[in-house]
Amino acid sequence: MTxxxxxxxxxxVPTIGFGLGLGLFVASLLAKSEDxxxxxxxxxxxxxxxxxPAYLTGNAxxxxxxxxxxxxxxxxxxxxxxxxxxxVPMEVTGLLAWFALWRFRRWHVVALLVLSVLTIGLMxxxxxxxxxxRHPEILADGTAASAPGWPRAAAAGAAFVLDNPWVWPISxxxxxxxxxxxxxxxxxxxxxxxxxxxxxxxxDINRLLPWAMLxxxxxxxxxxxxxxxxxxxxxxxxxxxxxxxxxxLGGLTLLYPTMVNEHSGMKLAANATITRAVGATSICLWVAxxxxxxxxxxxxxx
Amino acid sequence: xxxxxxLLEQTGLATWIRESGLLYSxxxxxxxxxxxLSTLVGLNTAIDLRLxxxxxxxxxxxxxxxxxxxxxxxxxxxxxxxxxxxxxxxxHASNPAFYVKLxxxxxxxxALARIRDQVFRKHQSGKLLAAASLTCWFVALSAGxxxxxxxxFIS
Lengths: 302, 155
What we know:
The structure holds two protein chains of two kinds.
Chain A: H1 3-10, H2 13-31, H3 34-65, H4 73-102, H5 107-134, H6 153-163, H7 167-194, H8 202-205, H9 209-229, H10 231-235, H11 238-253, H12 255-259, H13 272-295
Helix pairs in contact in A: 1-3, 2-3, 2-5, 3-4, 3-11, 4-5, 6-9, 7-9, 7-13, 11-13
Chain B: H1 2-10, H2 12-19, H3 26-51, H4 66-87, H5 89-93, H6 96-121, H7 127-154
Helix pairs in contact in B: 2-4, 3-4, 3-7, 6-7
């Protein structure tokens, strides 16, 4: 399987997954079910994570297609811009869903409804344009590809990095700042979960979690800037694929300290072994992310 | 001084790190340096945030065990830092960003030691120390990253 296959596999997940998340969320509001609401928030968060490789593998698919005469690069570019335009609100929705899981506030409901509906609309447009890349039979006259007025999000991001020589080094600095925030706080909380750090309740130490999440956001943004400016360097490197995979799993492990604590419905004491196992796994995954990121320039490309 | 740097650079170890091209040579040392820095700076950032009022419900004594982990990170980075330095001694020694980085790391480590003595042991307020610590680490990280660009500019 190549990353191009992976794109065909992953590209349906954000559209369908966000539809599912929104359906569950609305149902939880109607049924006033706390469990259902938690489930829908988890769906939003996970789909927002999976949307990242769904986007990244698109460039890998285009690497295969770029010399195909039957494929219009204009349509590909329009699809990529539309995908980036949908990815941004999708990540914001995922982040907000995580905050709602961490400490629920009433305004989260309205914000999540508005953002998820907007995201699904933009995602549907990206999916439509993506279909047109390989299916000329559905390509109508005056397709959306040539429709004026839509922001060229991916192209603008790439131009921002390529036209300004200071953006890459500054982004590298902030990629390390984000790394320290994320790794340090996650390490501390995982050491608490492992029982190395004692004398503090999980519900108290997880007050630091939003700062780890800030680190993750900084690194997704700066990482995306690197990727936009130099996509082939990453899509043609297997170490990068493993790094993104480890990052997704690491992101999933953040749900555990977010949702399981002394006050939540899930019984922490009975789950001491699971808590330790998740803590150890999480540390290993984030160390793997750093390892794979560091080895990326030296290993994995042809 | 210059000749000492050249001698350092010409040792077998320095040449091996610089030129062997093996994955367990330069790239592994670089990875360990990154792991050490994210452990030390990351945990220290968590403590600084706590001293600045984030998660005020976290009891300070519960964080005392992290000092051992941070000192381990520091030891790892002194060791890997020396290895990375000797591999390119003359180039690093002529790079102003390198001295900025070293000075800020030294200040940040002093701040961390003072945080333990004055805030953890003597229960004094640590807000100023925490702010200084965050600033020093940020400048150290920035200077460290920019070393590569300034090296390129010099040579």
